[in-house]
Amino acid sequence: MIEMSEPRNLLEAPVAMPPVAHARFSIGDVVRHRLFDFRGVIFDVDPVFANSEEWYAAIPAEVRPRKDQPFYHLLAENAEASYIAYVSQQNLVVDESDEPVEHPAIQGLFDVYSEGRYRLRREHRH
């Protein structure tokens, strides 16, 4: 037999909600890592950490970011390669070079680069 409890009065004990961090950057923004020499264009945003624990544990403790902040997926580049990066908000700054990012996947997601940001292709907007 399942025991049913009396409905709780929600005004008696409010549930504390964790603070919500607001994303400083948007899809299409060109950003630079504040510690490492790479830059990229944002193509997705997670409101909080959403990668594997193995990935997180591999970051040296002295530079490991908090999980309770937005994390950004970047089409990234450095002097040697193009790749996809996953970066915490605390480690990103606006890239002020006004140079486009030379990642091969950009054409598939974005169509126009103007004033330091890319515009998402029509078929990817919602």
UniProtKB/TrEMBL annotation:
Keywords: Stress response. Transmembrane segments: none annotated. One of its GO terms (molecular function) is DNA binding. This is Heat shock protein HspQ. Signal peptide: none annotated. It comes from Sphingomonas desiccabilis. Residues 22-121 form the Hemimethylated DNA-binding domain. The keyword Zinc does not apply. The keyword Zinc does not apply. InterPro entries: Clp_protease_adapter_ClpF, Hemimethylated_DNA-bd_dom, Hemimethylated_DNA-bd_sf.
